[in-house]
User: Which sequence fits this backbone?
């Protein structure tokens, strides 16, 4: 069965269709055969009955047929089909024909009838065929038809010129059953017992009928086989046509996934179901490609960001070491190296954080905290920076309790406030507000900074994106802060959004669900 | 020789400028693509050291546009090392390519090579009569004995030697040997040239009145 389980779709379909078709054809053939046989046998029987009836007229004499032809006490028309299906020699048992007690052959009684003594009974009555019957029968005899008439006592009243060797008078039926038919050896015989007890029997060889049936069976077999072959062949062709697109899809998909991800499966001309499948695959490839491209870009950016401080370190160190320098130079160089190293450490931390988030390993602690308190602490921390740039900080920190990760949210708030301070003008202003609104904890950070251009706005949360590259590079910023912030916010089930106007300022809004988000 | 360094990371830019300056080059700097392109088009530098990732105009753009007008040798710096980047750079007309972080010595060697190549010089030694300049070591020997030249003197001499057979105008020399941060006094050149003549021989450098200086070809 496991062999079957992995067999091809084509193979399976073909096998099932073949089996089904063969079964149907067989059923059809068998039915046709049976019907034909029954039909033929019936016709033969009809023929024999007619002959028996004809002979019966001769036996009775004209005008002496009681009550119309062949009415029997039971009212059954003996021309109706037999109760049992007629049997053909070779099949399971026709009734063995035993001579009634006292008879060894149909010719003459051999045993003395009780009460009669041992002497020759009077000779059997003889019947002469009418002219028409004689003509009919002499014609029929050429086809092998024979007849015999017995008197009630068993004497032969008439017989055809050729009779089968083992011909015997059949046993009389219990009741008047009209004309009966039976199969005797390779012959089919119809017989009738008159009221007087005479027996009329007409028989015909079954050989022609059998030959017909054989021919018919052969014809059925040949026709059936032909139909089967054509049917299976046609089905095979149709199946191939139907299955081919599936194979094409599989092949194209394999090729694409192993090679060029920007290629797509061409679903033109395919059936609706398959086109749907191809469509789904194409969409998946599109997403895969986008993911890979994003991945590549991220990797390229990350490596660039890491290599830059490295280059600075190496360059400064090598330059400084190239010749003798005053001690102060070495100090400056070392401080520079430390600076670069710190920058790289920050960057590495950010990158690792991303990696963990991406791998789903960064868990978010869910503990009660107050966003206002977090904001307060961050502002305290950044006060020196604000002061150094002469920036006025206005706060409105209403209590905003929620469940979340305090450390990470502090990271987010710090990043937002830092951005507001960095991208601000000298002596600018920033506003920080926390509140509960519509069942969410909301933090708003607004600044009077340089703003973000409309075309950059959708990209600000992308990794390594920096709107003003020259300036932000100078301050050692990597462009990952907002991307990390958004990842953290999303992990809390919240949203981070921004509105901005160039030359005026920007406003960032953080919304977090209050409950376990 | 005068170089232009275009790099947006300020500390790296400062470091490069210092290192190259200490090697005796005059160094101009630019911290974005537009500024870099402007300077490279306006002045004749011997080599432009160009970073790929620049604000305002990417390094590739600067290179392409520069190549429309000038054949200044360009050495590209990048932190990306995808082969496609390298191919793209070379196809666009870069003369060489360095991947950050790099060794200072490698940078210096490649700059020297570019200068030599531009002057049609394959080796790092030049001989003029019995005077041999070791371009790599920046040393001059006369008859086997080393001659000490000041940095400026060496630069001028090297430039004239690399353009042997051509008349080098004062303007050329100023352009190529003094960076924008210096005040140029016209007689300074004369002083240096006479210094060279004292140390290496009066016949070495010919003065073409009204035109400039020249070291005659052999």
Assistant:
């Amino acid at each position: 069965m496991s062999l079957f389980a992995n067999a091809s779709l084509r193979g399976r379909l073909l096998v099932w269709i073949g089996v089904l078709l063969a079964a149907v054809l067989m059923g059809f053939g068998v039915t046709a055969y049976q019907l034909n046989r029954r039909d033929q046998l019936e016709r033969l029987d009809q023929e024999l009955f007619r002959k028996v009836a004809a002979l019966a007229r001769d036996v009775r004499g004209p005008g002496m047929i009681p009550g119309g032809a062949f009415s029997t006490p039971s009212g059954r028309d003996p021309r109706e089909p037999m109760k049992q299906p007629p049997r053909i020699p070779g099949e399971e048992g026709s009734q063995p024909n035993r001579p009634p007690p006292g008879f060894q052959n149909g010719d003459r009684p051999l045993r003395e009838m009780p009460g009669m003594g041992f002497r020759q009974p009077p000779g059997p009555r003889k019947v002469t065929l009418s002219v028409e019957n004689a003509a009919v029968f002499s014609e029929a005899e050429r086809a092998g038809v024979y007849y015999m008439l017995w008197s009630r006592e068993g004497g032969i009243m008439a017989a055809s010129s050729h009779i089968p060797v083992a011909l015997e008078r059949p046993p009389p039926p219990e009741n008047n059953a009209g004309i009966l038919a039976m199969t005797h050896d390779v012959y089919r015989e119809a017989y009738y017992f008159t009221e007087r007890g005479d027996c009329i029997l007409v028989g015909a060889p079954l050989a022609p009928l059998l030959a017909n049936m054989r021919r018919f069976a052969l014809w059925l077999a040949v026709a059936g086989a032909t139909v089967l072959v054509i049917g299976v062949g046609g089905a095979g062709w149709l199946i191939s046509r139907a299955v081919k697109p599936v194979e094409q899809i599989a092949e194209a998909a394999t090729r694409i996934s192993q090679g060029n991800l920007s290629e797509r499966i061409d679903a033109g001309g395919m059936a609706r179901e398959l086109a749907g499948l191809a469509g789904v695959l194409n969409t998946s490839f599109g997403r895969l490609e986008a993911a890979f491209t994003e991945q590549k870009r991220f990797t390229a950016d990350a490596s660039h960001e890491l290599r830059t401080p490295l280059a600075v370190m190496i360059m400064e160190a090598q330059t400084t070491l190239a010749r003798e320098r005053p001690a102060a130079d070495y100090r400056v160089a070392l401080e520079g190296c430390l600076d670069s190293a710190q920058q790289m450490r920050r960057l590495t931390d950010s990158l690792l954080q991303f990696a963990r988030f991406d791998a789903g390993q960064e868990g978010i602690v869910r503990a009660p905290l107050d966003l206002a308190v977090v904001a307060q602490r961050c502002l305290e921390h950044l006060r020196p920076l604000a002061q150094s740039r002469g920036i006025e900080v206005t706060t409105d920190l209403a209590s905003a309790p929620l469940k979340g990760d305090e450390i990470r949210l502090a990271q987010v708030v710090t990043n937002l406030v830092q951005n507001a301070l960095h991208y601000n003008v000298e002596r600018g202003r920033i506003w920080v507000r926390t509140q509960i609104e519509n069942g969410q904890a909301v933090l708003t950070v607004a600044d009077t900074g340089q703003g973000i251009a409309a075309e950059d706005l959708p990209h600000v949360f992308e990794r390594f994106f920096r709107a003003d590259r020259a300036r932000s590079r100078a301050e050692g910023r990597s462009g990952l802060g907002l991307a990390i912030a958004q990842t953290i916010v999303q992990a809390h089930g919240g949203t981070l959004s921004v509105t901005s106007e160039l030359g005026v300022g920007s406003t960032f809004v953080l919304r977090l669900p209050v409950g376990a988000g | 020789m005068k170089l232009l360094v275009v790099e947006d990371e300020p500390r790296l830019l400062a470091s490069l400028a210092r290192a190259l300056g200490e090697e005796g080059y005059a160094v101009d700097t630019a911290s974005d693509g537009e500024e870099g392109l402007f300077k490279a088009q306006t002045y004749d530098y011997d080599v432009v050291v160009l970073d790929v990732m620049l604000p305002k105009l990417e390094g590739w753009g600067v290179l392409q546009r520069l190549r429309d007008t000038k054949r200044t040798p360009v050495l590209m710096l990048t932190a990306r090392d995808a082969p496609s980047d390298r191919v793209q750079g070379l196809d666009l007309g870069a003369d060489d390519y360095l991947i950050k972080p790099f060794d200072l010595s490698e940078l210096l060697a490649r700059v020297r090579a570019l200068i030599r190549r531009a002057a049609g010089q394959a080796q790092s030694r030049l001989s003029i009569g019995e005077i041999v300049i070791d371009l790599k070591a920046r040393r001059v020997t006369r008859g086997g004995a080393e001659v000490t030249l000041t940095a400026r003197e060496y630069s001028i001499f090297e430039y004239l030697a690399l353009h042997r057979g051509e008349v080098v105008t004062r303007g050329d020399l100023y352009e190529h040997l003094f960076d924008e941060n210096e005040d140029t006094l016209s007689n300074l050149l004369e002083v240096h040239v006479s210094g060279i003549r004292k140390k290496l021989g009066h016949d070495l450098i010919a003065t073409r009145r009204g035109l400039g200086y020249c070291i005659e070809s052999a």
